[in-house]
Amino acid sequence: xxxxxxxxxxxxxxxxxxxxxxxxxxxxxxxxxxxxxxxxxxxxxxxxxxxxxxxxxxxxxxxxxxxxxxxxxxxxxxxxxxxxxxxxxxxxxxxxxxxxxxxxxxxxxxxxxxxxxxxxxxxxxxxxxxxxxxxxxxxxxxxxxxxxxxxxxxxxxxxxxxxxxxxxxxxxxxxxxxxxxxxxxxxxxxxxxxxxxxxxxxxxxxxxxxxxxxxxxxxxxxxxxxxxxxxxxxxxxxxxxxxxxxxxxxxxxxxxxxxxxxxxxxxxxxxxxxxxxxxxxxxxxxxxxxxxxxxxxxxxxxxxxxxxxxxxxxxxxxxxxxxxxx
Length: 326
Known about the structure:
With 326 residues, this protein is α/β, with parallel strands linked by helices. Helices cover 44% and strands 15% of the residues. The strands form three sheets. The protein has a six-stranded parallel sheet, with helices on both faces. The longest helix is centred in the middle third of the chain and has 16 residues, at 186-201. The chain starts with a helix and ends in a 5-residue tail after the last strand. The mean pLDDT is 91.
């Protein structure tokens, strides 16, 4: 910054003011400073700002898995909801427990202006740390009973129940379930609880051997369906708690000439763009991912501007989109 001041022929304080509050510096002076910045290739130090204010302009985000395309839609909404002057730093961590806590602690070490966590379960120690951090926090994707600050999402349990009820109403009775590890993923566990609730309400005894846990990917979906068909040849429907698995299973059926939904019905979750484009088109649970991120961003921006949040829990709901695979 000293070099910029020398090149522009102004004081160091004037350069600092022009960068922080341009409206306080005359336009000709700002032009000379900008020319000097361009000539010298000057990039300001965020760490210097942090030392002065105790906070960066970073909004830290902790996602359970960076491979899920649904999270990209959320992040776009979050970025646009936050507006200018704040930047996202995103970290992904598979699983929960100790590793999840380590990453959250590391992000707090960057002194973020705010923290967004996708998922609503934390260890007691981590919850206490998050509360004491005095950083505005949004828990995204799950409607936790006691938000640390703000929770924006929907009921995964209700969504799991509605998806299963749809299959039951269509006459399917031997239904499989595919998800990520329920131990490591609270949303998967909630959807499983809804799945089992719907089965029991219909008088059907849940069969654990028809409930599979796997990692993300189209191929994993194909493998899961193949495994379920081997375990129970009479299986007539599968609820995949992610569209990636459901689409992989559908592609497998097409390769093997397995009729969908004639032989087996397929239910997805998230209603990704590809879901409506396949033949047959995929029945799925539609979640307002963009709006979820946008609501989180606008709420955080408002809080950072000194306004207390009016609501702690914001339920954006979900929608079942019935298409050809069921």
